[in-house]
Amino acid sequence: MSKTKKIDKPIYVTQPYLPPLDEFIPYLKDIWDSKWLTNMGKYHQQFENELTKYLGVKHVSLFTNGTLALITALQALRITGEVITTPYSFVATTHALHWNGITPVFCDIEPEYCNIDTDKIESLITPKTTAILSVHVYGNPCQVDKIQKIADTYGLKVIYDACHAFGVEINGKSILNFGDLSILSFHATKVFTTFEGGAIICHDEKMKKRIDFLKNFGFADEVTVVAPGINAKMNEFQAALGLLQLKYIDKAIEKRKKIAQLYREKLSRIKGIRFLNDIPGVKHNYAYFPIFIDEKEYGRSRDEVYEELKKHNIYTRRYFYPLISQFPTYRNLPSSSNKNLPIAEKITGCVLCLPIFINLKGAIVDKISYLLKRFASF
Ligand code: T4K
């Protein structure tokens, strides 16, 4: 495809990877025939077991989506009071606190990988603080050791929103093994999808049991309800797809890596555009490809670039703009003030996530890079 040729079909920021349909049909037929559709059926159990092995973690509890997994994780740890969290995430992170009657306390982010700034956590701790809810933004690991040290010093729990971090490892160890609980999302827009879906990762059997009760109304057996649980169970269709997806996930991440490398190669020559590089010792999943536009150096604002690419049928996304702290529910909190969040304010105004998904053609990456170069005004 020539760089000047128009893109005829819209290119979105992402597109789900789905396995060949003929491989999914036998699962569908089996579910149809068995009439067992949900409530921890055989595919739920198989997927839970296989996923635990694949991720290299102790326990996985499957959920119907990542948001309910987050809400339930906070219940499982009996978190109350105030929780220190990031304003730079998808809104579900903070909503999960709100749904539990917990006050979010926003902490600024560090300027490179956009994760919570560990140097700024301690000054936000009050007698009401019970936990840190941090996000591995774009799948890049938080400073897990520093966070754990702070948590240990002040007796806080650590919950990781790892919704972007499927398959990510630090020095050969799953990122999901850090903190008290980690939460995954298998939404259609994620690296690994079960249409909708999610999971909580925990490290001991007692906790897994509690989480499993909580996701099933609190039922311990037919007549015993041990806690005010919710309905957050993953159904058999989701679980069957999950099982099948495990066959393809490594190849899918490899493909994403190649796309990220191509973008880096092409964009490195454009002044005023920064992108993220791999971190030594980290196995990345290339879930997103964010760029950060320096308006002065590039000569155009992020929003101008966003609109310009749209004219060419390329639909980028401003993940994460606006900051969660700017939404009406949260903007009057003391920690939402601009003074508290200078780096997050800056990053939210210059970030743009470019399309990345396994069927994205190299020619489209070329075209996007060419358009970005051409649009710069010096
Ligand atoms: N924590 C974090 C850090 C998260 O990022 C998320 C979810 C959660 C928690 C909550 O997990 P879940 O409860 O969702 O499991 C999307 C997703 O809806 C959301 O799951 C995701 N984060 C967030 C970052 O992105 P939108 O509003 O941007 O999605 P949407 O519908 O505009 O989709 C983006 C593009 O993806 C579309 O332009 C086209 C493509 N797409 C989308 C869907 C739904 C497809 O090709 N097929 C599809 O089925 O929020």
Quick overview:
The chain has 378 residues and is an alpha/beta fold. It contains twelve helices and 17 strands.
Features:
378 residues; alpha/beta; seven-stranded mixed β-sheet; three-stranded antiparallel β-sheet; 12 helices; 16% strand; globular; binds ligand T4K
Q: Percent range for helical residues?
A: 25-40%
Helix count, DSSP H or I runs of 4 or more residues: 12
Spatial strand sequence of the major β-sheet:
2-10-9-6-5-3-4
Please state roughly what percent of the residues sit in beta strands, choosing from under 5%, 5-15%, 15-25%, 25-35%, 35-45% or over 45%. Answer: 15-25%
Low-confidence stretches: none
Bound molecules: ligand T4K
Describe the biggest sheet? Answer: 7 strands, mixed
On the 0 to 100 scale, the average pLDDT is: 97
Sketch the topology as an H/E string, one letter per element: EHHEHEHEEHEEEEEHEEHHEEEHHEHEH
Got a strand count?
17
* Rg (CA only): 21 Å
Q: Per the principal axes of the C-alpha atoms, what is the gross shape?
A: globular
User: What is the SS-derived class?
Assistant: alpha/beta
Terminal-residue CA separation: 28 Å
Could you characterize what this model shows?
The protein has helices at residues 21-34, 42-55, 66-76, 92-99, 144-154, 205-214, 236-245, 249-267, 295-298, 302-311, 342-348, 362-375; strands at residues 11-12, 59-63, 82-85, 103-106, 129-135, 157-161, 169-170, 173-174, 181-185, 198-202, 219-221, 224-225, 273-275, 282-283, 289-293, 314-315, 351-354. It is of the alpha/beta class and 378 residues long. 35% of the residues lie in helices and 16% in strands. Strands 2-10-9-6-5-3-4 form a 7-stranded mixed sheet, with helices on both faces. The model has no long low-confidence stretch (mean pLDDT 97). It starts with 10 loop residues before the first strand and ends with a helix. The site of ligand T4K has 24 residues, from helix 3 and helix 4.
